[in-house]
Amino acid sequence: MGFYDTEDGVQEYVEAAEGYDGAELVAVLNKHLPQGSTVLELGMGPGKDLELLGRTYQVTGSDNSAAFLDSYRKKNRKADLLLLDARAMETDRRFDCIYSNKVLHHLTKDELTTSLQKQREVLRTDGLLMHSFWYGTKEEEHEGLRFVHYTEQELEQFAAEGYEVLDMNRYEEMAQDDSIYLVVIRTE
Fold first, then answer.
1. Total tally of structural domains belonging to the chain
2. The domain containing residue 165 runs over which residues?
3. Which of 35, 82, 135, 165 gives the lowest tally of CB atoms within 10 Å of its CB?
4. pLDDT of residue 43
5. How far apart are CA 95 and CA 157, in angstroms?
6. Distance of alpha carbon 102 from alpha carbon 44, whole angstroms
């Protein structure tokens, strides 16, 4: 059983993430994606970003942890939620945008490549991806979770197959330039 698969793991994450949300990322997305578009959030965790996205977009939350989904569903019974693994992206639904905030860094680099290919299949024509990562070149493990850091060059390489980069920038989450976001558009 993984860290995020237990109520204790979920609670520990919620406490550690207190005071953090993706407001800055959602503001960037608003520049690229029209109001009312459909957005799938990968790895929604406690749902902070899902609620921010829901102010502007038609949102569907997803997570690979049933514990996170169950926790969110208790407070938001009508929420549109999917149990979804970012590596497989097994859904018949299509979206205008797929968004994640510090989720895909848990994948190996090979798994990230596969995930981006699978995400392309879930996007509508001219659909967008917006993902954030830790910035840098290291790979580390904490509580059994992998954290892979990325540079601009690496993200450009990952996005080269089937996407065009619209926006990429470093930003501060906990320390100056410790994070990076990527916005790409699906190409034919």
1. 1
2. 3-186
3. 35
4. 94
5. 23
6. 10
Mean pLDDT of the chain: 91
Give the whole-angstrom CA distance, residue 90 versus residue 12: 28
pLDDT digits (tens, 9 = 90+) for 124-161: 999 999 999 999 999 999 878 899 999 999 999 988 88
Q: Look up residue 132 and give its two tokens.
A: 């954030």
Q: Of 1, 56, 60, which is closest to residue 23 (Cα–Cα)?
A: 56
Give the burial string for 13-30 (b: 16+ CB within 10 Å, else e): beeeeeeeebeebbebbe
Least Cα distance to 44 among 23, 26, 60, 30 occurs for: 60
- CA 94, 95, 97, 102 torsion-angle sign: negative
Is residue 160 within 8 Å of residue 138, measured between CB atoms?
no
Quick count: other Cβ atoms within 10 Å of Cβ 154? Answer: 16
How far apart are the C-alpha atoms of 117 and 159, rounded to whole Å? 9
For 134, phi then psi, to 5°, come to -75, 140
Query: What tokens does 109 get?
Result: 């680099």
Q: Identify whether the C-beta of residue 132 lies closer than 8 Å to the C-beta of residue 179.
A: yes
What does the DSSP 8-state code read for residue 136? Answer: S
Give the domain CATH number at 180: 3.40.50.150
pLDDT per residue over 71-99, tens digit each?
A: 899 999 999 999 999 999 999 999 999 99
pTM score, whole prediction: 0.91
